[in-house]
Amino acid sequence: MTLFRIENLRKSFGGLEVIRGVSLEVAQGQRLALIGPNGAGKTTVFNLINGYYRPDEGRILLDGQDLVPMAPRLRIRHGLARSFQNIRLIPHLTVEENVLLGAHIHAGGMLAQALPLFMGRGRKLREQARGLLEDAGLTAHRGALAGSLAYGLRKRVEVVRALMARPRLLLLDEPCAGLNTQERGVLMEELQRIAASGVTMMVVEHDMHFVGGLCDRAIVLNFGEKIAEGTPAEVARDPAVIEAYLGHEPEKYAHA
Ligand SMILES: Nc1ncnc2c1ncn2[C@@H]1O[C@H](COP(=O)(O)OP(=O)(O)OP(=O)(O)O)[C@@H](O)[C@H]1O
């Protein structure tokens, strides 16, 4: 069953068309990688999906409902969550408090509006946050200040925080950036576990080893257009993809 569909998406900035008629589908439970050389348009597609930008043309359908007219926070309530490339945990709050903050968006938007809800549902939300942290093997870090954690751990907390919104589609923007090999392995296991629990994912990631380990399909963008689609291994040996990456360290992408 198709959970998420993009139809003929177009976006220009100052007369330059950076997304040129992109269409794609993600089935329920699938992990789709969105890859392509620098400047191909991957982040712009994510920004269009979560409502940071409005497309010039096209539809973005989650479970049959068009997200385009919806404000970003309504999209979150409709089942969309995003883990950012640049970590946005609040450093002087604890891990648990940061994870709890993931719920306020789900509860309706501004923190102030959500506070009465927090008071009423506080215990339940705290239980949910603790459960998610436990599932992720992060219980020992629950009371630590987010700012004191190693980078790899902060990334994992970010993912747990996104799960507080109970997403149906989780967007991951370069989850591996800045992580060492061991941290990448741990993050991959966590994401595989989350995927097995039924969360559908779209992942922008340059590390093709990670993409090959996590994603069942990949779509390749180049200059705002889809140039290939298939399993990560298939697209990695597609001549059009290899050509697009020439001059962009092609050997890095040849091992999927
Ligand atoms: N707000 C903006 N205003 C003008 N141009 C933009 C804007 N956002 C993105 N672009 C341009 O759109 C193109 C696609 O950028 P985008 O960041 O989506 O690529 P990307 O595939 O995510 O690249 P990277 O892998 O380097 O993150 C680039 O040419 C970029 O300069």
TrEMBL record:
UniProt keyword annotations, A-Z: ATP-binding, Nucleotide-binding, Transport
Q: Which CDD domains match?
A: ABC_Mj1267_LivG_branched
Gene Ontology cellular-component terms for this entry are: plasma membrane
Q: Looking at the keywords, is Lipid metabolism present?
A: no
Name the Pfam families for this protein. Answer: ABC_tran (PF00005), BCA_ABC_TP_C (PF12399)
Instruction: Please list the GO terms describing molecular function.
Output: ATP binding; ATP hydrolysis activity
**Top-level taxon of the source organism:** Bacteria
Q: Which residues form the ABC transporter domain?
A: 4-248
Is Transit peptide included in the keywords of this UniProt record?
no
Q: Which PROSITE patterns match?
A: ABC_TRANSPORTER_2
Q: What is this protein called?
A: ABC transporter ATP-binding protein
